[in-house]
């Protein structure tokens, strides 16, 4: 099994339940969901002319649409070569659940890593049971994808992007489909009104705030 990789890097997880924990990020290429405020639009297309050797992807210094095929073994070799210390691997995108992630997660678990997937919930989630699923539902985006019941059920927590009241109402409708889950509200683009709304709602509902710590710290 091989996967299209946009980038691999080590940093601190800036969002959700593992905020502050060192993590290796594997960003896969490809996403048809079409969120207008997406901060990784360069991962949307998997264009043949943008394919590169894996070595080129690992030395990228800026966001780009270049990507490389990589097997789980090649990823593990990369972690070792680059001297990564983190024991959590976050598989993100793009939309990582476009791919069967079982072989990748099993290889990572076999090498002593734990895994977390960040997904929009619009594709069936194929992972081992140990993998932590953070579902960040993207409702009503231009790609026209619906949030799947199977994804809601599998999710270990919900990290919901919030810009306005309507986003809270959409979240309530999703939670009515899957029952209680740990919820993290995340203000879109660090906006002041969005942040105030998230703080108010978290206190009212006993939910948690996720502020994209890496953006405040100015790290990747
Ligand atoms: S699902 Fe994620 S990667 Fe895809 S468009 Fe939305 S924010 Fe961007």
TrEMBL record:
Q: Which reaction does it catalyse?
A: 6-carboxy-5,6,7,8-tetrahydropterin + H(+) = 7-carboxy-7-carbaguanine + NH4(+)
How is the cofactor bound, as the UniProt entry phrases it? Binds 1 S-adenosyl-L-methionine per subunit. Binds 1 [4Fe-4S] cluster. The cluster is coordinated with 3 cysteines and an exchangeable S-adenosyl-L-methionine.
User: Which range is the signal sequence, renumbered to this chain?
Assistant: none
User: Which species is listed as the source?
Assistant: Gallaecimonas xiamenensis 3-C-1
Enzyme class comes to lyase
Q: In which pathway does it act?
A: Purine metabolism; 7-cyano-7-deazaguanine biosynthesis
One annotated GO molecular function is: 4 iron, 4 sulfur cluster binding
**Which controlled-vocabulary keywords does the entry list?**
4Fe-4S, Iron, Iron-sulfur, Lyase, Magnesium, Metal-binding, Queuosine biosynthesis, S-adenosyl-L-methionine
From what superkingdom does this record's organism come? Bacteria
Give the gene name.
queE
Binding of [4Fe-4S] cluster: at which residues?
A: 31, 35, 38
A single GO BP term for this record reads:
tRNA queuosine(34) biosynthetic process
Annotated residues for binding of substrate:
12-14, 27, 92
Residues where S-adenosyl-L-methionine binds: 37-39, 94, 136-138
Member of which family? Belongs to the radical SAM superfamily. 7-carboxy-7-deazaguanine synthase family.
Q: What is this protein called?
A: 7-carboxy-7-deazaguanine synthase
Q: Where is the Radical SAM core domain?
A: 18-220
The enzyme's E.C. designation = 4.3.99.3
Assembly information from the UniProt record:
Homodimer.
Its taxonomic placement starts with: Bacteria, Pseudomonadati, Pseudomonadota, Gammaproteobacteria, Enterobacterales
């Amino acid at each position: 099994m091989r996967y299209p990789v946009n980038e691999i890097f080590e940093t601190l997880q800036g969002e959700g339940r593992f905020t502050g924990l060192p993590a290796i990020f594997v960003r896969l290429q490809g996403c048809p969901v079409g969120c207008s405020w997406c901060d990784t639009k360069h991962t949307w297309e998997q264009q043949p002319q943008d394919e590169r050797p894996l070595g080129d992807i690992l030395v990228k210094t800026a966001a780009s649409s270049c990507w490389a095929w990589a097997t789980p073994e090649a990823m593990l070799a990369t972690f070792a070569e680059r001297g990564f210390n983190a024991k959590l691997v976050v598989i993100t995108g793009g939309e990582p659940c476009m791919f069967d992630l079982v072989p990748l997660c099993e290889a990572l678990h076999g090498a002593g890593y734990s895994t977390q997937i960040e997904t929009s919930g619009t594709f069936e989630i194929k992972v081992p049971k140990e993998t932590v699923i953070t579902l960040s539902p993207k409702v009503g985006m231009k790609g026209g994808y619906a949030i799947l019941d199977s994804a809601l059920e599998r999710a270990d927590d919900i990290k919901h992007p919030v810009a306005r009241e309507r986003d809270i109402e959409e979240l309530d409708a999703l939670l009515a489909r899957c029952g209680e889950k740990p919820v993290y509200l995340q203000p879109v683009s660090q906006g002041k009104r969005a942040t105030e709304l998230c703080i108010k709602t978290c206190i009212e509902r006993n939910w948690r705030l996720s502020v994209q710590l890496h953006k405040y710290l100015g790290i990747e």
